[in-house]
Amino acid sequence: MTNTNQLGQFLRARRAQVEPAAAGLFPGGDRRVPGLRREEVAVLAGVSADYYARLEQGRERHPSPQILDALARTFRFDTDTRAHLYRLAGLTTGLVPAPAGDIVHPALLTLMDAFPHAAAYVLGPAFDVLAANRPGAALLAPFGPRPNMVRVLFTDPLARTFFDDWPFAADAVVHALRLNAGLLPNHPAIRTVRDDLAGCPDFTTRWDRQGVGALLRTGKTFHHPAEGRLDLTYQTFDVRDAPGQQLQVGTFDHGTRTCR
Questions:
Q1: Nearest-5° angle of CA 192, CA 6, CA 15?
Q2: Same domain for 240 and 113
Q3: How much is the pTM?
Q4: β-bridge partners, 218
Q5: Domain ranges, residue 51
Q6: Residue 114: which residues within 8 A CB-CB, separation 6 or more?
Q7: Do 55 and 127 reside in the same domain of the chain?
Q8: In the predicted model, is pLDDT for residue 27 greater than 70?
């Protein structure tokens, strides 16, 4: 899954996902491929068709910020996706991984234990669960003591019933993994997860769509083998002194039991 033309692959994949009508174009005519044509993207972004073709082909690798902004507007990128586009073009720097690697600071462990009625856990850049408080560990117990949530979603049969909306969860984790891959280029754990799942069609189909997005505040419903249905509202926080780590805190909705 290694690619030396990441910017071009990203643009091609996202171009194919833009409906002509959504871009203000008449969708008729003989369209042999989905989405916009290269020439249409060039017109909408205000660049020459030859220049845009060279971007996709990897013959031009240093677009200006103005061109990237024009492409982001054409594709209607959100903030996370626009920032990812800039990183692929080499115009922003990624994060510097935490020197401690997968070690969670004791102060963060103490903080998680101060949430006795919330499921809290720390995720690494590749979405390994690095630490959890008691409710968080109980929630994720069906998947082992330190699961990798990407592998869980795509390789553990229980995931399809555990996550009430499995397709949403699968999309979200792949988008977030790609975001982390841009922030932490060549991170070994991210690369290993990608390579390990290269033979999984459900994963590769989503990965090839080039979707990008951070884990946001959202409601999730789980069907826990021991606890039954659990409804939680999640917040995700970046761990500022350990770049690449994220704290997830899920509060149990009113009327839902807390995991013991």
A1: 120
A2: yes
A3: 0.82
A4: 234
A5: 6-88
A6: none
A7: no
A8: no
